[in-house]
Hints:
There is one protein chain. This protein is α/β, with parallel strands linked by helices. The chain contains 1 helix and 10 strands; from the N terminus they run ββββββββββα. The strands form 2 sheets. Strands 1-3-5-9-7 form a 5-stranded parallel β-sheet, with no helix packed on it. A 5-stranded parallel β-sheet has the order 2-4-6-10-8. The radius of gyration is 19 Å and the shape is elongated. 23% of the residues are buried.
Amino acid sequence: MTTPLALTSALGSVSKTGRWQVPAQIDATSTMGSVLLDFTAADCPHAEVDVHVNCQAGRITLVVPDGWGVDTSALTANGAGVDVTVGGAAEPGLPLLKITGQVTWGRLLITGPDQLRTRQDERSERHQRHEQHRAERALRREHRHH
């Protein structure tokens, strides 16, 4: 049996990405911070992985490879956003992530690597547009004062 993995973030961010060994139990806690668990390149020898989340006004993101299962039926959300874009039953031979715990005034995102990249690209484009508009406004303001 492997030792449970505990990731805790308070006003900061922690992540588990790249190549790593997935234990049978994971505890992810975010209090006004962010936790990222990226299973894309992870080695998972277990048929089921228990992922217990405790998200208090924070953000927890799980990046799940194609074919992995996701079960959120034991998850409690209070004033929170839970966005699951992948999952369901696991394909034969692939793991099932059983998500338990609670999300209170926070956000839980369970998504695939492609959807995550799309969201990041959209965020980056919005940020670039915002910065461009800000620079244009500053330039117009400067021209008015001269």
